[in-house]
Amino acid sequence: MDHTCHFTVGNANLVGTLHRPSGERPPVVIGAHGLLGTRESAKQVALAEACAAAGMAFLRFDHRGCGDSDPADTRSDLLSQRVADLLAAVSWVKARQDLGDRFGLFGSSMGGAACLAAAPACNPGAVVTWAAPISSDGVTVNRHEAGQFPALNVRPFDVTKHLAAIGRILICHGDGDAVVPVAHARAIFSQVDTPRHLIIFPETGHRMSHQRHHPRFLSEAVHWFARFLTPTL
Predict the structure, then answer these.
(1) Which of 172, 171, 228, 166 is nearest to 193 (CA)?
(2) CATH 3.40.50.1820 for the 2-229 domain, yes or no
């Protein structure tokens, strides 16, 4: 079962969709979308449905300036704002009496960077990233697309300082990614704590262009979350 939900960060209203399986107080995965994405991204929806089928709830939400949520704050840089949004989602999940205490984070692209930056502050039980950049160095942004979102204040960033405090992380990346080079995934893997696992998907771009990789990605991600969020299963 899924339903629309709302929570706040400061004075801004964020809109999400909560997929909640049957059962008492299931663990939760919180998903953070990419730079110009929304909670309706194909990976978010597919992973939400797969997690729910495995007995885990999933919250996918629109960051400020995207989808149905309130506009972005032009005074704040993008990564700091996305981290604040994500931590607000964590707080909302923790306050719900119908959800369990264990939670994980999933982030795609810039959402992955937000998860890496937020993880030390909220201590998730597990993290999964897809095509996450370790920094803005070497990342290619489509300026035409980004120009449609002038309120997104994209400044240079680097999440390296957060990595040593992160463990229980699955890092996924395509070796044909022309937006965030695969070297970012290897750099993240070399600096995070254990348990950790790196999967490089062959001949795959930033948006997981080959459909044949979708089943494996979903299976690996769900298994990783279940391993740490539902240890009795």
Answers:
(1) 166
(2) yes
